[in-house]
Amino acid sequence: xxxxxxxxxxxxxxxxxxxLLSPGPDFILxxxxxxxxxxxxxxxxxLGIALANAFYIALCLxxxxxxxxxxxxxxxxxxxxxxxxxxxxxxxxxxxxxxxxIESDSSAVVQVSYFSRELRSGFLASLLNPKISxxxxxxxxxxxxxxxxxxxxSAYGGWMFLIVLLWDLMLARFIGTAVMRSLFSTGLxxxxxxxxxxxxxxxxxxxxxx
Length: 210
Prior knowledge:
Blueprint: H1 6-20, H2 25-36, H3 39-69, H4 71-94, E1 101-104, E2 109-112, H5 115-127, H6 130-143, H7 150-175, H8 178-184, H9 188-208
Antiparallel strand pairs: 1-2
Helix pairs in contact: 1-7, 2-3, 2-5, 2-7, 2-9, 3-5, 3-6, 3-7, 4-9
């Protein structure tokens, strides 16, 4: 049973991992959060991204035929996602601190966010990215055989969710190291502005996409 679907599983795993290597808006948020906040908070973005991926995986598992026919749903997600990306980009360009808690010690003032806030940002950024839904739709229709049992497909989905979560947690841990923070410490505000510009441009590009 296992060997029967091993080749398919390897193909799915490689295709999925290669997609992970392609940075998107969620990666921009992960970088910003990892540089700005402690790992216990930045990990919220990672979980949010993974949960949004899990949503689309589940949708493809159980409603793949319906999803492939709902072109209007794609358009709705595209415009809402574009608006959300532009909103996030403008917020970063303005470098506002509204909604954050400022913790101070004897040596410095540290800006800290909440785990739930970062989780929400990561979840919405990925959920409102229609390219993620198209990727999983393509994966489940073109790569995974239609005769593959639902149980096996579910195992694929569980694996992909786990890989997304672990990969992003690893990136967050690496980007949040003392070396990386020291490297960007003098220009963190500029990093945020660059991230904001990228997110804004991504939102505009998504809205104008034909």
